[in-house]
Amino acid sequence: MNFITRAVLYTARKWKKTLLLFCLLLAITTLVLSGLAIADVQEEQAEEVRGTTGASFTVSRNTATGGWSSDRGGSFSTQEYLTADKMESIAAINGIEGYNASIRTILCLSDRRGQWLEQMEPTGHAIVDCQFYSYSCINSKYHSLFLSGALVMCEGRTIDSSVKNGIVISKDIADKHDLKVGDTLQAVNTPLSDDKTMDLEIVGLFEVVADKTDERNHYNESSYYEYTNNAFVSEAAMKKLLENYADVGYASADFFVSDPERLESILHEVQKINTINWNNFFITANDEVYQNISSALSDTGTLITTLIVVITAVSMVLMILILSMSVRSRKREAGILLAVGIAKPVVVLQYLLEVLLIAAAAFPLAYLSSKQAAGTLGTLFGKTAEHIIVTSEHFMLVVVVGSVLLVTAVLASCIPAMRLKPKTILSQME
Length: 430
Fold this sequence. Notes:
Blueprint: H1 3-13, H2 15-52, E1 56-61, E2 68-71, E3 74-77, H3 84-91, E4 96-100, E5 104-111, H4 126-129, E6 131-137, H5 144-147, E7 151-156, E8 166-170, H6 171-176, E9 184-188, E10 197-208, E11 230-234, H7 235-241, E12 252-257, H8 263-270, E13 281-286, H9 288-329, H10 331-339, H11 344-379, H12 392-418, H13 422-427
Parallel strand pairs: 6-11, 8-10
Antiparallel strand pairs: 1-12, 1-13, 2-3, 4-12, 5-6, 5-9, 7-10, 8-11, 9-10
Helix pairs in contact: 1-11, 2-9, 2-11, 2-12, 9-12, 11-12
């Protein structure tokens, strides 16, 4: 009788032990496959966060190194502003996907007939109710209010450098005054003055998604204007509207990177630009949201990996203990086989084949059961069940690694008995 036949007959005869090993392998493999599927979803989520979480940096004027002056608008810093050349040299660095800078002011808006527009909740004073908190934009899609999701474009287009005399207003204001994309508004910074009045085309409308939650415990003029009373104006138009004012320019600019993990290296490259006097500007990294989310994802990923390692290690120890006990209980059988001339490697091969036969049944069944278990376990880590998929790649990995570990466990459990000679083995049996 060859070792293959002996292995099959022993596995069938000792069905209780076979069932124990089968259940153990089934449970272990199911858990490991589920863990690998959850880990993959975790990695995909981390990649998605890298692509969608807004990591940026801000270059701002360092007013501490500049002087001070005054005009009709009051005192102001004479520190140099960010120019188009400076911003473009920064934006040219590989890894920066876009940037925006804004000049903020309060514009009074009217329709083409000269009728002042009203805010959503007018006070009854026309010269106050027509005031809208306005931002010039190099690229409004990178404005913090749109990036944060507080506002979302619903019609038309955003403001960028190709728009010369355009404005984006809220859909609520447009509906109130029967305005639409393509209509023209008139804008002026300060009425009853020599400030220029300009015609601006409505190029887009936005909707307010989030309620305004600014705490007004310190002075911030934008906090006194509801989001519906905000407006976004093209860069070229804003400069003309404010040409009577000396203190007009870009005090800061926000630059957005495509990969948050590259933010630090990009900052080093930016600071090497020798056409910018960095004594007059400073850089601030804005990746707190990404770092917090990334840290949480990393901690979860580490926990999942640790659990997989612990499950594998504990399972390996259990298998060795069970197989060692089995080998010790079969000393007489082993001694007889060795005494009749069967080589030790063949005996070990029989033991190995017995375990692999059980694994051959347990692994495919575990693949099927893990498809259900993975979703259930994934919810414990905050994952959506339908997104957790056990793939054939996971199965092949577990089969290969699991088979290697089983072989190792069988060999480790056989070492004590196989070191002895047949006579010694038989003499130890009662």
